[in-house]
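User: Sorry, folds how?
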Amino acid sequence: MIAVIADDITGAAEIAGVCLRWGIPVSFSLDASPASGAEVMVIATDTRSMAEAEALKETDRIASMLMDMGITWIFKKSDSVMRGHVSKELKVLAKRLHKEKMLLVPANPYTGRSISDGIYYVKGRPLNETSFKDDPTFPAFSANVKDLLREDELSVAYGRFSEEGDLQQGFNIPDSQTMQDLYTWASLMDNSVLPAGSAAFFEMCLKRNFPEWMRGQEPDPLSFVGNSLMIAGSSHQNSKDFVEKAVEKGVHLSEMPELLIEEEYNPAGTEAWVHDVGRGLLEGNRVIMAYGKKKASFKNYPAILKKRTAQAVARVIEEVPVRELLLEGGATTCAVIEELSLGALIPMQELSPGVVRLKAVDHDMVLTIKPGSYAWPEAVYRYFELEKPVV
């Protein structure tokens, strides 16, 4: 068995989706608890949303548990645009696993994310000129991968790498534009290297190091059943565009009441939101919950608003059972799953790279989750009776 430690839950689901695509038995959990028969254990830690000290402690705890299980081949799934405590978590993990070199390949050709001459591009635009510059927690202040790594202790090699060259001690972030590039970098690995980065790089690591696992399988037919609640937890333009189209089609949009956007919690805001969402589900079968247009500015507001959203979602589901729960954004998704105490989740289906359906073991509910910056796939547009725009 091998293990993947992901710094948020949507990234963990993206890894599980890769395994589903290739027919590899996979387990998915919020802790190091493998399912019987799994070849890959995916652990969603949500360390990206934690304070740095807490994130490093959690990373070390999970790594120690994996080593006690005898699992030594470990991949660190980090954010594809390098948000979070990337360098610090990798150093903790490398120290625990006795690795001298870290091979970090965040690029993901599936989503138009590439690195050229050490500059990170999203569909041809430098990262700091995209909507990632407005991320409330880890804004992209630069497109240079060394800057984004925020590392001032160990050496950082980046830019053009030789296909036959040795990796240096410390961090290695090679230019990557294609899946073949990612496969080439996976070929540079040996026992001294800790691999990390995007789900696309993990896929190439599997192909290079475990080719016998890559069986592939036909996807199951998609079947959304019953009513649905979507939590639009991202400020990315993809999310805004989907919500706008859904509202035009008549889907009920319920925005967070302004009472909940104040620093001091007001339970009347939760009551009003729960009532509106519940009414929408009873009348129209599909509802979208979103943050609304008013901006918060108090300390730690992203985490606080996500917690309030999760509490409202849990209250709604107590009153009106929901069969299909669609979630976007790792921090929002994790907050909702924790508030609902969902426990074990079984990966069911990959709708597109990064968009995965999981069955809640102890609830009659299916979750469809994705990173906030990814677009919903054609299948979800069809489910909401919308026409997906051609990009």
Remarks:
- The two ends are 39 Å apart (CA to CA).
